[in-house]
């Protein structure tokens, strides 16, 4: 087999390796690396804004679990033919290491997880989302390397010198194309787009004080625009919604949601953000409340011959009543 010059894809055999009795998949490892990178960076950013160190872990657990669930369910929903056919293994729905995790679904599930966890931790939802924004793009950039390792989600044929080499034996290789055809490396396009988005958010935060959800709004707009372009290049099957690929439609929704969030939050909160904690939920507030609970209760003992309300009383000797009582 002769492949034209371009970006070589790693042998599909490299997608996994064994370690003793375990089979490890590079896709899953790469996703985990992205999650760790985003968590560490978000912790740093949130701490600088007044959050307790590692409070991010209480939120990340919810966000990651519901994000992974949402990512998989969204992918299955938009690619039902890959999972529901005669003889299909129903358990394949849960084989996330084989690829097929939609970022849009991860955003939906992750947002639900953050909202739930923020109620418990006392962290403002928008404060956490803003702290997460650049780290989320970084994690997504890293995650696209998993698509490269899996030889998946490439774009249309291209004659560009950076075209991606795909083995003709790959099940995703389009039928009817000659062996050696190069394809748009959509994984690389999105990786570079996301890294550019990281730089954009950091620059915008320096120029404008992006708080109250404005940073995550910028993320949604930037990422959504990129996905609209990149998804339009892909050749893998996808459900069609309103004449658009399902992920193009989803990306368009992200752009609209981002614009709405930015406009609404800018109008509702022109003032600086008071802090990352909800009122009365910060560490200082909780410490003060705990101190008040620990203070011993003191009550003034009533004087002898006085009622509980402090008024004096007169004892009457039942055997020798006073003249007045007579």
From TrEMBL:
Bilayer topology? Multi-pass membrane protein
Span list, region Disordered: 274-326
- The enzyme's first-digit EC class, named in words, is transferase
Q: What is its main location?
A: membrane
Its Gene Ontology molecular function terms? phosphatidylglycerol-prolipoprotein diacylglyceryl transferase activity
- In the UniProt record, does the keyword Repeat occur? no
EC number(s) given by UniProt: 2.5.1.145
Show the Pfam families listed in the entry. Answer: LGT
Signal peptide residues on this chain, from the entry's feature table:
none
InterPro entries, per the entry: Lgt (IPR001640)
Q: GO cellular component annotations, sorted alphabetically?
A: plasma membrane
For the biological process aspect of GO, one term held by this record is: lipoprotein biosynthetic process
Q: Where in the cell is it found?
A: Cell membrane
HAMAP family hit by this protein: Lgt
- Which PANTHER family does this UniProt record tie to the protein? PHOSPHATIDYLGLYCEROL--PROLIPOPROTEIN DIACYLGLYCERYL TRANSFERASE (PTHR30589:SF0), PROLIPOPROTEIN DIACYLGLYCERYL TRANSFERASE (PTHR30589)
What's this protein's function? Catalyzes the transfer of the diacylglyceryl group from phosphatidylglycerol to the sulfhydryl group of the N-terminal cysteine of a prolipoprotein, the first step in the formation of mature lipoproteins.
What is the protein's given name? Phosphatidylglycerol--prolipoprotein diacylglyceryl transferase
Q: In which organism is this protein found?
A: Pseudoclavibacter endophyticus
Organism lineage string: Bacteria, Bacillati, Actinomycetota, Actinomycetes, Micrococcales
